[in-house]
Amino acid sequence: MDMSNKGFAYDFNNERRGIALLIHNEVFDKFSGYKDRPGDSGDFIRMQEIFTKLGFEVDAKRNLTGRKIFDTIQTVSQSKIHEKSDCFVCVIASHGEEMQIETKNNVIIKEHVIVGTDGQCVKTRDIVEMFNEDNCEGLKDKPKFFFIQACRTSNTTVLGMDSGHILTITERKQPPGGVDDVEEMHVDSKITDNVDASYISTNKDNLDTRHMSTADTYLSRRQLVHQVTDVECPEDTLLMFASLSNNFAVRNSSSGGWLLTSLYSQIKEHIETGKIGSTEFTQILNGALKEMTTKNFKPSDTTSRLYGAFSPGCFTHCLSRDVLFLEKQYR
Question: Which of 146, 40, 150, 148 minimizes the C-alpha distance to 95?
Fold first, then answer.
């Protein structure tokens, strides 16, 4: 097949591979209401390693507040490097929620957010929008990849769970059958039972509240969702989550998050076997999803009701061409 055919694959012969922005939150403020995320330090190291091997200029950040997450991503979206780049990668590992929010028009929406170390949140949709063709001219017609290791649950999905501990949960049915052992499990979410039905703004420094909210902004579990807002996938963009909507993202305190561990494993294998430049990238991501399905856990007495609360990861994309990481700067 003709690799030079622009209709077949994106142009990966630019001067630079591009920026790989890594945002990993492991240690959370005590007053944030969120527990730490043990196991993320290994993911942080592995993501730096694998994207460096792919030739990216890695911009690695750790333990950012909600505002700092927003400011960092906005700054990177305005970088001139994109004009000379093949593509862009963003990896986010933190706590996450699918929050129900009441808008000014009294419409109830459910929207995914990323939690900062201070408990403040950034809408995932707004993160992605910063890199669309209207807001980031340098990445127009170039692939953008977002990998998100964060839960997608809300207080209306499961109640009574506190992340970072041996898990307890209420009103969850356990199906018959058993699963294989795995080490202590954690989820990247905080579920609260006491909620506030109003939208709480924390805009103390004239920050656009469209991008910021608080993790304590929930609606009563009795409130119905009238409208569901998915994370929009703009043109030439791929979004990969650690779980399906309404499910927990699983993280192992020793080996790290299931999504990022599998992503690392699959990309590394294709680099080491010399197949990275000839294998379409979404096929590699399918391999990561397949690897995630082989991971099981055996719940303890206190976590036996967790069956049905987990899922493999998923991705959605609006890529118009194939993605081939042609050799540029592997090391």
Answer: 150
User: Tell me, what DSSP letter sits at residue 131?
Assistant: T
Pairing of strands 237-241, 314-317: antiparallel
Residue with tokens 């964060």: 150
Q: Please determine, for residue 111, whether its predicted confidence score (pLDDT) is greater than 70.
A: yes
For the chain, strand residue ranges (E) read 19-24, 57-62, 88-93, 96-102, 108-115, 120-123, 144-149, 185-187, 212-214, 227-228, 237-241, 250-252, 256-257, 314-317
Q: In what order do the strands lie in the sheet with 57-62?
A: 57-62, 19-24, 88-93, 144-149, 237-241, 314-317
**pLDDT band (50, 70, 90) for residue 44:** very high
Instruction: Name the residue type at position 268.
Output: K
Q: Does the pLDDT at position 4 exceed 60?
A: no
Q: Rounded to whole angstroms, how far apart are CA atoms 245 and 220?
A: 19
The pLDDT of 104-115, averaged and rounded, is 80
How far is the CA of 64 from the CAs of 72, 115, 117, 121, 251, in angstroms?
Answer: 9, 9, 6, 11, 19
CB neighbourhood size of 177 (10 A): 6
- Percent of the chain at pLDDT exceeding 90: 53
Mind listing the pLDDT tens digit for each residue in 172-214?
A: 233 333 222 233 456 565 533 222 222 222 333 323 333 444 4
Tokens of 35: 């527990």
Tell me the pTM: 0.77
Q: In angstroms, rounded to a whole number, what is the distance separating the alpha carbons of residues 258 and 243?
A: 10
Instruction: Show Cβ contacts of residue 167 under 8 Å, excluding neighbours closer than 6 positions.
Output: 161, 185, 186, 187, 299, 302, 303, 306
What's the mean pLDDT when you consider all of the chain? 76
